Amino acid sequence: MEQLVPVFIILPLVSAFIIPVTGRFSQNFTRGLSSIVFLILTVLCVASIGLWDRGMIIYTVGGWKPVGDIPIGIDLIFDGFSAFILGIINFIALLSSFYSIGYIKKYTSENNFYTLLCLMIAGMNGVVLSGDLFNIYVFLEIASIASYALVAFGVEKEELEASFKYQVLGGLGSLIILIGVGLVYWITGTLNIADSSNLLITKFDNKFYIVTQILFIAGFGLKAAIVPFHTWLPDAHSSAPSPISSLLSGVLIKAVGIYVLIRLFFHMFDLTYEVSLLFTLLGVLSMIVGGILAIGQSDYKRLLAYSSISQVGYIITGVGLGMLIIATGGDGSIAALAIFGGLFHLLNHAIFKSLMFMTAGVVEHSTNLRDLRMLGGLSRKMPLTTNASFAGSMSISGLPPFSGFFSKLIIIIAAFQAQYYVVGAIAALMSIITLAYFLKFHKDTFLSKARSEVRQFLPVPVTMKVPLVILGILCVVLGVFLVPQMKEIFMDPAINVIIDTDQYSEIILNVNR
Predict the structure, then answer these.
(1) Beta 57-61 vs 74-78: how paired, if at all?
(2) Which CA distances in Å does 184 have to 109, 187, 298, 402?
(3) Whole-prediction pTM value?
(4) Which of 245, 263, 493, 494 has the greatest CB tally within 10 Å of its CB?
């Protein structure tokens, strides 16, 4: 398995270079290649289940040995946490790529689209696997630059304006991250996360710690669209082609934002009460602001984009509660429950938000409309899309038996068990508000009488329907079966890696000695 770890980066990267060449001879081959690549990577993630009894897998690129006890090689770390995120990335990429076969035909330059898609996934996979700060930054830039181009893929005024705003704020986030990386290297003389963790303890400086942590929270917070760093997201996610919107909202903000924050603050820095409290407050603030701003939206995709900010707030809140409990020496089982709720909601959000952006793409493809004030009466003409949208809406809203209910419930229970009653109450209240505006959204879009005459109603390709069916089923199946049966298989390895903060550094440094 060790030799297969770099395949997660190499395969989509090589595909990105092959597609422009093969696309000149066979467009059908180009359309199917990216889906085949992501299918292979998804299968590899599933096949890795059960390996974690043997610990993490470390692949040192080039076989470089440490020099003077300083690991100079590039370590790719494949453990329970990275495997969990990789599985989500490549599974959603598989469905988005398959969905794109029918969707992207209305655009020109299909080859460029699939090339950029593969580059974006290669970058995200690289971020998740990298064991050192600088290569996290490099792969983050690969994913970000590809996403900037994909947001502007329609080359209309709206898309170009959204991409420009995204680039400016994304570039600012990258600069802040690079400054943070430079500070860590200045103090420790190493970029390896495990090595930096040990050296930061011996060279502890409170002011340096605070400044560096704030820089990383701001930089990766911009990438994750956490409030108050969220302003780029509504324009970018609503302007991008729908399969890209599903990737941006479903996985990109998690892979290059939330994942890295969790990895660094659990495995490089010592957890402190102040930073843990800040995490939780940012999560609660995102829940509230995103949910309130979503209420007044009339654009189909902008409503979903603001909703993403609110749902990311639940993920950050769950993880933040776990950090708070650990930092204050609380009950470890409650901390594990809070983190489980956060990771479970991360998985759920990838599924139901990808589903919702794909239903938006189907509606726009068929009617050429996104304005909710002009839609209505679609349930008769689009029963599959209506049912898929209902499953996604109710899962986002946390209605049983859909999967979103269980992840939100776990976060709320953990908050009350840890005696953070206000946090639990806000999470419950925002779930009710989310249910209210998604019920209205579903009624106005699909169930009520049409408010305007739809001049065109194009048929939907089967490649756009299949992902809706798969994701809609998962919205129900994950809620019914994941707790507790599948938790042990898919979730516990990731939770154990996060909670056991010392083991990460010990294993990597022992291998590098």
Answers:
(1) antiparallel
(2) 42, 5, 45, 43
(3) 0.92
(4) 245
